[in-house]
Amino acid sequence: MALTQQATWEKIKFNEKQLLIKRLGELVDSKRYDNDILKDKLEKTVNLHSIQQTLNIYPAKKKNHIFAYLIEHTYPNGYNGNIRLLTAVDAKNQLLGVRVVAHKETPGLGDKIETRKSNWIKQFKGLSFLNLDKNQWKVKKDGGVFDAFTGATITPRAIVTATSDVLTLLSKTCLINQTGKTCSVR
After folding, report:
1. For residue 91, how many other CB atoms are within 10 A of its CB?
2. Which site in 58, 72, 91, 160 is 20 to 30 Å from 42, CA atoms measured?
3. Contact present, 103 and 86 (Cβ < 8 Å)
4. What is the pTM of this model?
5. H or E stretch including 59?
6. Which residue did the predictor score with more confidence, 131 or 174?
7. Buried b (16+ CB within 10 A) or exposed e, 126-164
């Protein structure tokens, strides 16, 4: 039984890694960087809305120059719990895109955050706090600019908030530039 559990766990971990590699490639073409992006992973402890978590930060480098960061983070307030995301930003904190790594949202409703179900999540590409005021980072129902899905406002709200949180951490420069300090978003 222990061998079966170990084999199953290893297969799950392998599949998770393959999905992460796929999502990384959707956001930054592997031909654009020459480093081992997974091996160069950084970890940063943050407080997001009073919940402490460790973010995985993958720097994309070309000739030892970082041109993008891919940040793996979890937002706990999806309709059915945690939504794990990968958010890519360039050196100016402009979004290169956002992708879902894992979720348990309702099939046919909240799962429209997946690119295979809809293009909704692709709307973040090119956005930043420079071209969209921080107060606009909400779904329309909450006074923001982002559409929600009919019958599924909670899931888009979670993605918009999580993406805005990453941009907030980056704008504080504590996510990338400082070591030893914990970043916070309230």
Report:
1. 10
2. 160
3. no
4. 0.86
5. strand 51-62
6. 131
7. ebbbeebeeeebbbeeeebebebbeebbbbbbbbbbbbb
